[in-house]
Amino acid sequence: MVNLIPLLVVVFYLAALSGVTWWARRLNAGGGGGAVGYLLAGRGLPTVVVACLLAGLAVGGASTIGVAERAYSVGLSAGWYNAAWAAGAAVVGLFAARRYRSWEISTLPELFERYYGIGGRVLGVVGQLVLQVVITSLQYVAGGAILSALLPEVFSFHGGMAATAVVFVGITLIGGFWAAGLTNVVNVIVIYLGIILGATMTVGRLGGFAGLRAALPAEHPGFSLDGVGAGLILAWFIVMITMAHSTQSVIQVGFAAKDERTAARGYLLGALIIAPVGFISAFLGMAAAVLHPGIVPAEALPRVVLELHPLAAGIILAGLWAADVSTASALLLGSATLVTNDLVRRFGRWELDAKREQALCRMVVAVLSVVTFGLALTVTGILKMLLAALTLTTSYTLIVLMTILAPGLCRRGSAVWTMGATKLALIVWLVAPAPWRVVPHPVYFLWAVSLVTFFLVAVIDRREIAQPA
Predict the structure, then answer these.
(1) In this structure, which of 177, 278, 342, 380 has its CB flanked by the most CB atoms within 10 Å?
(2) Global confidence as pTM
(3) Whole domain around residue 417: which residue ranges?
(4) What do you get for the CA distance between the two ends of the chain, in Å?
(5) Based on the domain organization, do 157 and 242 belong to the same domain?
(6) Would the pLDDT of 305 be above 80?
(7) What does the pLDDT average to over 203-210?
(8) How far is Cα 3 from Cα 311, in angstroms, rounded to an integer?
C-alpha cells in the first residue's frame, strides 16, 4: 500500500517549485530579454540567489546519497567531499569572481577565442559539453534512485528518472536561469530541513553521537577525519578548486550576478551553505552501518529514512530530491548556454529578435534533455564517474589563471594544445592497467600533463596573446 504522507509532502514541494517557476517567467525579459534574459537572468541575480544557485549545484545526489554511501564504510571523512566543494567556491569568491563578472562574457570558450583564436573556443566547447552532459546525466540516475528507494510503490527506478527529468526540465524550459535561481532558494531550505531532520532522528535512535560512536564496529573509521585517506581528500580539494574556476555551470552563476561585488559575495556565502551538508549526510551513512550491517552501501541512506515517521520520511525525501533537481536545472542551462552561444550564435548566419532567441534557447534545452536522459540509462557508479569527469577542468583552469596572472607566458597555441593533451591524458588514464597508475587519482596526472604542455608551448610557440585589460 502506498504511504500517502511522504507522497503528499513531495507533491506539496513540487507545487511550490511550480509556483516559483511560473512567477519567474516574467523576469526573463530582464537584460533586454533574448538569450541573456533567459540564460543569464539578464545579469541581475542578487547575492542570496547567486549563493543558493551555487549551493544547489554543489549539493546533489553525490553530496547526499553518494556521501552517505561512502560514509557507510569510511566514516565521517566522507564529508570532506562537500568541504572541498565549499573550498572551491570560496577560492573563486576571493580571487576570481569579480574578474569573471567584469569580462561581460557568457561562456569560458568565448574568452578563449578572444585570446587564443577560434580553435581554442571550439575545443573548449567540446570539453565543457562532455563534462556538463555527463554530470547532468548523473542527476537523472540519482533522482531515480531516490524516488524508487523511498517510494517503491509509486516509482520504479526508470520511472523515478523520468519524473526527475520532467521536473527539472520543466523548470528550465519555462523559467530559464531566473527560475533555476529562485527554485534553488526553495531547494536549499528543503535540503537542509530534510538532512538535519534525518540525521537528528537517526542518530537520536542510537543515543546521540556518543551512542553512535560506541555502536560502530571496532574496525570502522567512525569519527576519524582521515578514514578515506589523506591522498584522496587532497585529490578532492584539488579537483573541486580546479572545477570551480572553469566549469560552465559554476562560473555562469557569477556571469549572471548583477555586479562584481555581488558575484564575489555570492560565492563566499554559497561556500558557507555548502560546507556542512557532506558531514551531516555522513552521519546518516554511519548510522546505517550500525542499524543495517552487511547491506549494499548504496542503500545506506534510503534504509534509515524508511524507518522514520512517514512525515519525517517525506520531508527527507523531498530534501534529497531537491538536492538532485537543484543541481540538474543549473547544469542543463549551462550546457544550453554553451550550445547556443558558442555554436549556434557563433557560427549561425542569421539575426534573431529577443523572442526568437528565447525560443532557440528552449529548443536547445529540449534537445539536450533527450540526449542526457539517453546517456543516463547507461550510467553506473555516480561518485566515481563524476570525479573522473571533473578532472577535465584542469586545463581550463590553468589557461584561465595564466591568462589573468601571467599573460606574458601565454601563446596563441596554449589553449588548444593544453586542452587537447589533457583530454588525451584522461583517456590514457581510463584505459591504462591499474599497476601503471603511479598516482592515486587522475587529477594529479592531468595537472602534471597540463602544466608540462602549457610550458612547452610557451617555449616553442612565439606568438604572444593580446594582453588582457
Answers:
(1) 177
(2) 0.89
(3) 398-469
(4) 65
(5) yes
(6) yes
(7) 94
(8) 10
